[in-house]
Amino acid sequence: MVADLKTDVLVVGAGPAGSMTAKWAAKGGARVVMIEKRQEIGSPVRCGEGMSKDWLPEVGITPGKWINVEVEGARIFSPSEKIFEINEKHAGNEVGYVVERDGFDKALAIDAANAGVDIHLKTAAVEVRKEHGRVVGVRAKEFGETFEIRAPVTIGADGFESQVGRWAGLPTNIALRDMDTCLQYRMTGVDSDLRYCDFYLGKCAPGGYVWVFPKAEGLANVGIGVQVSQIKTTAEARIYLDRWIEKHPGYAKGKKIDMVGGGVSISPPLKQTVSDGFMLVGDAARMIDPLTGGGIANGCIAGKICGTVAAEAAQTGDTSKAFLDKYEKGWRARLEEKLYRNWLAKEKLTTLSDATFDKIIDALAGVRLEKLNVHNILKAVHEKYPEVTKEFEAFL
Questions:
Q1: Cβ–Cβ under 8 Å, residues 102 and 141
Q2: Whether the bond into 44 is cis, omega within 30 of 0
Q3: Which residues contact 345 (CB under 8 A, 6 or more apart)?
Q4: 195 and 315, same structural domain?
Q5: DSSP state of 210
Q6: Where are the beta strands (DSSP E) in 24-178?
Q7: How far apart are alpha carbons 185 and 241 in whole angstroms?
Q8: Whether the Cβ atoms of residue 24 and residue 14 lie closer than 8 Å to each other
């Protein structure tokens, strides 16, 4: 029989945001338990495996063996395959390294464990425990046995499909237009360029894009994200991806060696991520960038803030919503403006025709942007095709 546990901070979910939160809570002096429903952290992989690198020092991550390729930048292809090339420095949240995501997740869990975090694998939260309206822990199931973990601070880091947030009473509903369904093949024998992560826009991926992330010579992740509101069934993602591959000889000749799929939020962040004794972080708090679909950097940055506040709350004994609002204010000051602006941009971009995308990339192809953001992109497009930017005037 599994014995009940007591700890200062409980983290549900051992993805990047969970491990980062747990590590910084432990570094702050708290006793921390982190539970993961799967038997292996980081597996199965549900990610394109591309990420930037400029944020790593901020949260204390040292680059390691989990890096496959360090790319020079990204190429964005219009529907007619005009190319806008951007270097890594300006390429946003998902370019810099192509990684082995399971290795990356394990490395972050090792950092958490070395900081003192107690990790329980194959342990799923099945219920949030409350007393007088305050979250005081969870009921969990480990290898078929149910037990209770009590903690003055509980943190939901259980990903896009987060149940813990809903059980805790936070509003986590999401509209279909704010969801992408994604599918990715790892392919060998392809002609990808190790210097770039590639993104293909337009009706080849309704409301989303096709990506190619090189893993090694002749090996690449080839995937697609499509907006759920623009398709009839999630199975259509595979049809669109297969169709794209067939039209590109450098990939059509390749062989698929594995396949992963799942959902991604392209929504604004949640309006509330804390309550008495409880916080949400990472994908569970809708911190994924609505334009890129990337959430690793944001989840880790917010995780450091979350863990730091959790340790302070546990040590002072004040785990009220009022105290935990330090986390709410902290992550919003760091991330919210960009997330919200990118969501507004996403709302516009998902309505554009292929002809308009062609004009946008054509306008950008000859421009060197010092900083890649929505404002600078639209400003450059406005110079050549002012009619295209009329609907985006609020961003200029």
A1: no
A2: yes
A3: 290, 291, 374, 392, 395
A4: no
A5: E
A6: 32-35, 50-51, 67-70, 73-77, 83-87, 97-99, 118-120, 123-131, 134-142, 145-150, 153-156
A7: 9
A8: no
Q: What is the pLDDT of residue 49?
A: 87
Q: Measured at the alpha carbon of residue 183, what is the angle toward residues 178 and 184, in degrees to the nearest 5?
A: 135
For helices 296-316 and 321-331, the axis angle rounded to 10 degrees is: 150
Q: What is the pLDDT of residues 310-367, one digit of tens each?
A: 999 999 999 999 999 999 999 999 999 999 989 988 888 888 899 999 998 988 887 7
Q: In terms of domains, do 155 and 180 share one?
A: no
The pLDDT, as a whole number, for residue 288 is 94
Q: How many CB atoms lie within 10 A of CB 15?
A: 28
The verdict on 18 and 110 lying in the same domain is yes
C-beta of residue 62 within 8 angstroms of C-beta of residue 345: no
Q: Which amino acid is located at 24 in the chain?
A: W
Q: Is the pTM of this model over 0.70?
A: yes
Q: Is residue 141 one of the residues assigned to a domain?
A: yes
Q: What contacts 131, CB < 8 A, 6 or more positions away?
A: none
The answer for residues whose C-beta is within 8 angstroms of residue 114's C-beta and 6 or more apart is none
Q: Hunting for tokens 């919210």 — which residue is that?
A: 336
Q: Between vectors from CA 14 to CA 30 and to CA 223, what angle results, nearest 5°?
A: 150
64 is a domain residue:
no
Type and span of the H or E element at 109: helix 101-114
If one counts the domains in the chain, the total is 3
Please, is 247 exposed, middle or buried when counting C-beta atoms within 10 Å of its C-beta (0-12, 13-18, 19+)? exposed
Kind and range of the H or E run holding 376: helix 374-384
Task: Please answer whether residues 182 and 261 qualify as being in contact, where contact means their C-beta atoms are separated by less than 8 angstroms.
Answer: yes
Assigned domain for 274 exists = yes
